[in-house]
Amino acid sequence: MKSQKVGIGLLGMGTVGGGVASLLQINEESIQEKAGAELQLKKILVRDSAKSRRVELPAALFTSEATDILENPEIDLIVELMGGVEPAREYLEKALKSGKYVVTANKDLMARYGTDLLELARQSGGAIFFEGSVGGGIPLVRPLKHCLAANRIDRIMGIINGTTNYILSRMSLEGIEFQDALLEAQEKGFAEADSSNDLEGWDAAYKLVVLSRLAFGCSAGMEDVYVRGINNVTAQDLMHAEKLGYTIKLLAVGERVDGFISLRVFPALLPLKHPLASVYNEFNALFVEGNAVGEVMFYGKGAGAMPTASAVVSDIIDASRCLSYKIEDGLMEVPLKDIPVISGEKMVSSFYLRLQAEDRPGVFASLANAFGDEDVSLDMILQDRSEKGIAEIVLVTHDVREANYFRALQNIKEMPSIRQINGVFRVFGKNKESL
Ligand SMILES: NC(=O)c1ccc[n+]([C@@H]2O[C@H](COP(=O)([O-])OP(=O)(O)OC[C@H]3O[C@@H](n4cnc5c(N)ncnc54)[C@H](OP(=O)(O)O)[C@@H]3O)[C@@H](O)[C@H]2O)c1
Asked: CB under 8 Å to 86, separation ≥6 — which residues?
């Protein structure tokens, strides 16, 4: 028996909470050894304490009263696995104010209130650990904070939402449409009944905000992220992308651009030879580019009960060590800088455009002119098929200033020969020697 004891209160016993309770049981001995303390689960907050749970635990542990945990003097460490912003924020604020240590896997909360909570922890002598909030089981927080601390990080880029990656993988591998892939993802538990946060790119944006603070030390918030989801990606676009040597992925990209920061989440064409192109299904991966280390890639399961529990329990072990040995949390918080966010119009990208146009002489020329007028040059052109006098045309540009591209696109939309604009996506990594 360890001489030190750490009392733990869990807020939430759903998917991740169940994984955490089960991992604490499965690896009990080694976890306690590594923590250097006896970890005692004292109370678990849930909405419905009568509900049956996946993990066998004494009924007396469950409560639906937050004060049973927040005001419990036997609890040193609070592990928040409820999700959502409120009341999680309120509870963690109370916990930190009373000097308790906190572990959370809540990306929404960390993206919106992470800087306030970290500051509160610093002032009150508490600490907040959040490895599980980004990348599920993939270690990202500690590597960015510690192992890569010597670098100036210039770019982080990755696939950080498993639901959308599963859907795009199925669409690309099976040629099925978005709605069918979504249904399959829901049946297999890779998408929630209401997946709008994932599909619209918000989940990836929350994670990008958390990661960008670690990578760039910037104080960016959700309002600084350009967010586009995958709802408009069709099997047809994936088929064309493949013909051109690409696939389509929902990318989260944070980068330094001329003294500014750019934070964007968008579906993009990615060369098939790029390592991120072969990240399939529920898997996630993040590329980090540092000025000393070069390119580093992290890969693994970005969600799920046990992968996320792996990150959360590691935080519990770290927090318990800090509590038992009365050492600082060691998570090396540095003050965040106010680095300005670049206006999207100044960004330079290559674009893919799929449209339906009248199949008659002069249409290609007018398209080329509309682009030429805005200094947009074309790299690839595909005419797929022509039915009833309407042709499907795919155009890929060279790198262009985004403001110019969107002005040209507006003019094209107004041309009488253009019947429909079907898809507009950025093309990533086309001209890059490295990844
Ligand atoms: N699921 C994943 O793969 C994953 C991956 C990475 C990070 N995360 C993050 O981990 C957190 C938990 O996710 P999850 O999927 O485990 O959620 P979940 O399955 O919905 O579980 C939420 C738990 O919190 C309890 N709860 C929620 N609101 C409450 C309230 N107001 N008062 C008391 N109890 C409340 C629920 O109680 P009842 O059981 O009684 O309803 C449930 O036990 C979220 O922040 C999520 O973003 C999840």
From this structure: none
Q: What is the DSSP letter of 59?
A: G
Q: Report the number of distinct structural domains present in the chain.
A: 3
pTM: 0.95
For the record, the structure tokens of 42 come out as: 């004292």
pLDDT of the residue at 129: 96
Query: pLDDT for 369-385, tens place per residue?
Result: 999 999 999 999 998 77
Residues classed as catalytic: 207
> Given ligand 1 and candidates 13, 81, 207, 283, which is best to mutate, with the most ligand atoms within 8 Å of its CB?
81
Given this model, what pLDDT does residue 158 score? 97
CA 66–ligand 1 middle distance (angstroms)? 15
- Domain of residue 371, CATH code: 3.30.70.260
Give tens-digit pLDDT for 223-279. Answer: 999 999 999 999 999 999 999 999 999 999 999 999 999 999 999 999 999 999 999
Residue 265 CA, distance from chain mean position: 9
Statement to judge: residues 372 and 354 lie in one domain: yes
Which ligand 1 atom is at minimum distance from the Cα of 311?
6
As a whole number, mean pLDDT of residues 122-133 equals: 93
Instruction: Point out which residues pair with 267 in neighbouring strands.
Output: 250
Spell out which residues line ligand 1, taking CB within 6 angstroms.
12-17, 45-48, 51, 81-83, 87, 105-107, 132, 136, 303-304, 308
Half-sphere exposure of 234 (CA within 13 A, CB side): 10
